[in-house]
Amino acid sequence: MYQIKTYNAIAQAGLATFTNNYALNQSDQPDAYLIRSVDLHHQTFPKSLKVIARAGAGVNNIPLDVATANGTAVFNTPGSNANAVKELVIALLVIASRNLMAAADYSAEHTEADVSQRTEHDKTKFNGSELLGKTLAVVGLGHVGSLVANAALSLGMHVIGYDPYLSADAAWNISKQVQRAATMEIAVKNADYVTVHVPKNDDTLNLISATDLAAMPTGVQLFNYSRGGIVDNGAVLDALATGRVAHYYTDFGEPRLANQAAVTVTPHIGGSTIEAEVNGATQAARTIMTYLETGNVQYAINLPALNVPFNAAYRFTVIHQNVPNMVSQITSKLADAGLNIATMANAAKQQTAYTIIDVDDLDHESSQQLIDALNKIPAVYRVRLLIHQ
Q: Which leading EC class covers this enzyme (predicted)?
């Protein structure tokens, strides 16, 4: 029986995904955490903890170095809330183009008896423009960006995308009508609207800087529904003051953005839909089960992707440092135990590596001795033995 500990309100559909071989919140020594936004930076992870799955995209709330040192795989659920974010961005594009917020505020303030005559006189103040034929620059063409780009095309917009890290898999999801830009400057130089959809990491902090804003046309409208810190908010405020940016829409508020007429802050609701919560919880639950039962890895933050069909009777998985001579040290321990390797795979991600070894014959006594021997290799974080069900 695998033990799962949950944090936050996890959608019931996700919890119901677990089979009868899983128990929820019944042990202080869980095999897995299923979380959303809880901050784990000040927690001590139990040695039993093999996997953390976040029902969402960002993992800022998880100390990845601590998890790795504990031999704990960390997963997110990319794409689970992509449609929710896409729909909100498209809605905001319409709102921005038609000055809907200012128009609604006007109507809320003017409710007097002659409101019909007055609004008929004043409505030209809120004349907007149509999205048809306008240019949208999409920075980041992953799960969300590709959906936004394709949806904007269906509205008749001209779409130009910029993503120097675009994967081959992601490229398949993007319409051929989306023009690809080689640089940020090319992507934004003629844009009426710019929207950002990239993960937050060292390479994307302040990705939209004063230099990039200066490359945009005067009167551009900017959207950040990615992560806080990817847009340099100080530079945006300067650009708003000069008119370079006409309006800034973001899901990530901070005090200096408050009470700015040309800034609209939404309360981090980009991925907050019932459907997105169900998608994230369900995907996270399936990820946990796959990892615990097969050791296979997809969408891990701190481990390389490794997917090996589990056809043998037994499987050893080893999380270890990505240093020379590790594979030979591991295989020599199996040779010392007299085991023949049926299948082996190894991959690395930055400083961490992951090895899967399948064997057909194994007895209980030798298995425990082998696990102990593998754990004694200095660069090993965690060894697991899985039995094919």
A: oxidoreductase
